[in-house]
TrEMBL record:
<dbReference type="InterPro" id="IPR050378">
    <property type="entry name" value="Metallo-dep_Hydrolases_sf"/>
</dbReference>
<dbReference type="InterPro" id="IPR032466">
    <property type="entry name" value="Metal_Hydrolase"/>
</dbReference>
<dbReference type="InterPro" id="IPR011059">
    <property type="entry name" value="Metal-dep_hydrolase_composite"/>
</dbReference>
<protein>
    <submittedName>
        <fullName>D-aminoacylase</fullName>
    </submittedName>
</protein>
<feature type="domain" description="Amidohydrolase 3">
    <location>
        <begin position="50"/>
        <end position="522"/>
    </location>
</feature>
<dbReference type="InterPro" id="IPR013108">
    <property type="entry name" value="Amidohydro_3"/>
</dbReference>
<dbReference type="Pfam" id="PF07969">
    <property type="entry name" value="Amidohydro_3"/>
</dbReference>
Amino acid sequence: MDTVLRDVRVVDGTGRPAYRADVALAGGRIAAIAREGEPRPSGRATVAGDGLVLCPGFIDMHAHSDLALLRDPDHSAKAAQGVTLEVIGQDGLSYAPVDDRTLAEVRTAISGWNGDGTAGPDGPAVEFDWRDVGGYLDRLDHGFGGEGIAVNAAYLVPQGTVRMLAVGWEDRPATPAELDRMRHLVAEGLEQGAVGLSSGLTYTPGMYASDAELTELCRVVARYDGYYCPHHRSYGAGALAAYEEMVTLTRNAGCALHLAHATMNFGVNEGRAPELLALLDRALAEGADITLDTYPYLPGCTTLAALLPSWATEGGPDATLARLRDDAVAARIRRAMEVEGSDGCHGVPVDWDTVEISGVGTPALAGQVGRTVGQLARERGEPPFAVARRLLVEDRLGTTVLQHVGHEENVRAIMRHRVHTGGSDGILHGLKPHPRAYGTFPHYLGRYVRELGVLGLEECVAHLTGRPAARLRLPDRGLVRVGYRADLVLLDPDTVAAGATFEAPRTLPTGIPHVLIDGRFVMKDGRRTGVLAGRSVRRAGSRPAGR
């Protein structure tokens, strides 16, 4: 054997009770599991378990590491948490498939999530030398001089980017020819390895798609046994209707559904998580294939531009900035946001005291990070919208924000559900990112398992490993089982905790000394080893680009 993990407490990802064993690894896979009383394997290297829990590597079902994986070989934000696989291409906006025009547009549109790919604090410049999904996945496989990337990554075809390619940024129905092109682009992305389709239905241009259009794309996804992952049309005033819309749409398409960052936020939804769960239980009882993910924190995180009404962002970033510079149009935008409740803010009038600046793309604006728009407005004696408007223009829409609009009882109720999985929704870019990017998985285990007892250890690990692997249709990941890939975590259940806080969001966790990918230590004794064992994880039966 290559390595023997001696005398560990195995929590295998199924939810079943833990047991003591020696676990032997060879060739990147789990080669033997010897329970107490069985002959003990030997290996070239031995790691003393000393009562540590051994579990499958955590699967981050909602990640925004699309460029970070190519810029930061260390990537301790995820590796130190025990994450061995991230699902990227989220919220309907990412970097494949693209052409030269749409690549430039999407780089600007989601610079608040990932930076724009130029050299800077996030790392060296990204060489955007791909245009299709297969090319992007190949790029991940051969990152950093051909060695690979820090952790594994699966990809969702982004519906908004697809619509950008086929239709543009206009708020109108797709023509039959445009719909055919979108079907082709989705199918091509799935054939090249994507595991499903994502949407951002409060983000332009994806939000301009009708249910009929989305249903047609989901029918393509269903043919490839993938799943649809929507950031649906409202997490606020229209949340329950938006969830029901996605359930109905995917059932009509015969497509599996995974609800992204399934929260019930804003004052209108306080205490209403049971209504959401009842809706899902009815659909599951009728045969629907549904899962969801959440992060264990109250604030959300997005771009400041995302709060604008959709009509103000039609036409793309340059058109949005032109409207913001026009005083008359800006007055209409202000009314939509502060009085009517814009669709960008989920139908709820914006409370500027809940909107905290977390990152900027322009260094000269860094002094505004960590303050709410309301605070900045009071300090300057200005209306809050004037502060937000100027920031959007000067930062060219690159500003990220935390929205303090969550409810603890909703978070706890949803994480208990039998189809729940974990997703960080972690935005790594910016001076003061949300701590979920660095802390989601240890926070589940430390706060919600050990301290609060909301979930049992075995149950929580199943939520973070076996269940997401099943959603991704991965036949050899997500469980501690002979023959499975040795993507594994050794953790101390008595000390595991998120180090990241809102005040110090880039602090690494404690209590996770060892993390392995393909049997290679990417974290050892609490330190990043420099090993680049990550690769793209492609849909079964997919083919490389151009073949």
